[in-house]
Amino acid sequence: MPTAPVDTTKVTNNSSTTKPADVEQLAINTIRTLAMDAVQKANSGHPGAPMSLAPAAYVLFQDFMRHNPADPHWPNRDRFVLSNGHASMLLYSILNLSGYDLPLDQLERFRQWGSKTPGHPEFGLTPGVETTTGPLGQGCANSVGFAIAERWLESYFNQASDGAKLIDYRIYAFCGDGDMMEGISSEAASLAGHLGLSNLCWIYDNNHITIEGATSLAFSEDVAERFRAYHWNVLHVADGNDTRAIEDAIRQAQQEKDRPTFIVLDTKIAWGSPNKQGKASAHGEPLGDEEVKLTKDFYGWPDDKKFYVPDEVRKSMDARQRGAQQQDEWNKRFDAYRSAHPELAKQFDLIQKRELPDGWDAALPKFPPDAKGIASRESSGKVLNALAEKIPWLIGGAADLAPSTKTRLTFDGAGDFEKGSYSGHNFHFGVREHGMGGIVNGMAISGIRAYGSGFLIFSDYMRASIRLSALMDIPSMWIFTHDSIGVGEDGPTHQPIEQVMSLRAIPRLNVMRPADANEVSECWRAMLQHKEEPHVLVLSRQPLPTFDRTKYASAAGVAKGAYIMADSDGTPEVILMGTGSEVQLCIDAYEQLKKDGIKARVVSMPCWEAFEKQSQEYKDSVLPRNVRARVAVEAGTTLGWSEYTGLDGRVIGRRNFGASAPIKDLLREFGFTVDHVVAEAKAVIEESKKKTK
């Protein structure tokens, strides 16, 4: 078999543990048959992986996982991630049998409207699901984020001189061949090994099957050796049904002190199915009624009962009493901790609620008027450092670009998060944009106010992670600089055109492109006030003038997404609207039009998503319907702006790629000049007058 590990530490049955074999096998077969029945009833889904992974899932949840089904959010619980999320019925079966609020009728409604058992696990919908998985590799990266968060929280809260330990949980993830092929899992695994995250264990379902057939069609590397090269502790269980060997492997993972553990688990997909075992047809389609019957016969299962759970299995797998005891013991530790360290305990409470320390926003800097100005990446760096000093759990880093994105934290004691020293606030993700995205999401789910940064053009490399942050409604923060053709000489490979608009297309994602330093400060206020929903902050490389806010409206209008920055007396003849660096062009054009006796209004629109949440009355006050002469200016694609300019308006943008040249030449050649904005404004006014006659 092409992906079989070579020279890997093999784990065999060396355990002295004794269990009632009949109950254990009953439980494992219950997990298998629940998955089979649910997929069959839905006539949709993936039965094979749950059938082969049932023994490993049983051992992990029955013997190792510290969790309380009655309180899925217990802070010191172990985390389980099903990265191969197509095997969702494995997780749903385990959650039901463990005693989570996921009754059997929800399993019977697998993949149906309104159920808590969607096709792939969704964070926030199903109790016990720690993260949304399905896009392969994402769960792997999330689990690394979980492990990083645990290490940081442990370093921060276990620092008490009396040795009090508040945090000490572990992270387990199941992954499959698809996860191993996706690049994001490689990026995340490389970083996890570099950091020595020994609190992390991946169990790899090595079944050699994907949708198209055997993995040998496209995958022949030695996965185990790859993980050895990543500095992981690699173990091998040659029989996926050998529960004692699985138990020993997980125990060895727990004893590892310096490396994350990768357990290669050899399995047969759809184990026990007479005609589907080991075949690709068992991966993504129901077994069929007849094959289900034959498989149940093989298991010695009553084939006339669907969704059958033997009483002894229900009793033996119910983890509520054990979990309540584990949580109660931790609660007593926390009570003692709170008495000894009240301030740290208060901060821990805030993290659990996704709240911030009192007075955090008093640290937000205000910037004086400055015609020369400052790049918004520079002002963002100043704001970030001021806030991070007040909010210890505001932490993050860049994909090897912190000197350019200005996201390095420099306050006293900030430090670097690195192997053997997990208290640092700065993360070096390396040139791993996609891995960074999945890791930041894992950190954000864990309560860290986490950010990841890079160049806007490379947001394409991590779009799937950004999308999932929106789908999960988690407050991940994405800081992107070099936001337009203003990148200049680096040329079209590094000049974003469609990126801002494509990010705006993602539901529940707040894309913010501030016009000056004070808008930057207000964007940070808005981001951190959100307990849910991720934000993208889009920043310039080139200096932007800091506007005189005694002359123009306060930057506090950012909170509403769009606001009137400069206005005329009475009804304006034309509305100029823009974002980021192009607001300067709108303001300068406004002043010129004013000299020419033309009434104009400037609307800064840093966040479309926030604007759309405002009342219709407010939106109409900013963009009155009776003013049809409108000009939008943004150094990117024009797609989407007609929503605000209307069919009669005009958009000054860029419909093609950029070019390599100094910024002043690019702006002139592509029409981003005051004269061009003024000319377009006058032209659209004349057109509007003709249409109203």
Q: Could you characterize what this model shows?
A:
The chain is elongated, with a radius of gyration of 28 Å. It folds into 3 domains: 9-324, Thiamin diphosphate (ThDP)-binding fold, Pyr/PP domains (Rossmann fold), CATH 3.40.50.970; 360-546, Rossmann fold (3-Layer(aba) Sandwich), CATH 3.40.50; 558-692, Rossmann fold, CATH 3.40.50. Helix 1 (21-42) crosses helix 2, helix 1 (21-42) runs antiparallel to helix 10 (289-299) and helix 14 (376-388) crosses helix 19 (517-529). The chain has 25 helices and 21 strands. It has 693 residues and is of the alpha/beta class. The strands form 5 sheets. A 6-stranded parallel sheet has the order 1-7-8-4-3-2, sandwiched between helices. Strands 11-10-12-13-15-14 form a 6-stranded parallel sheet, with helices on both faces. The N and C termini lie far apart (78 Å).
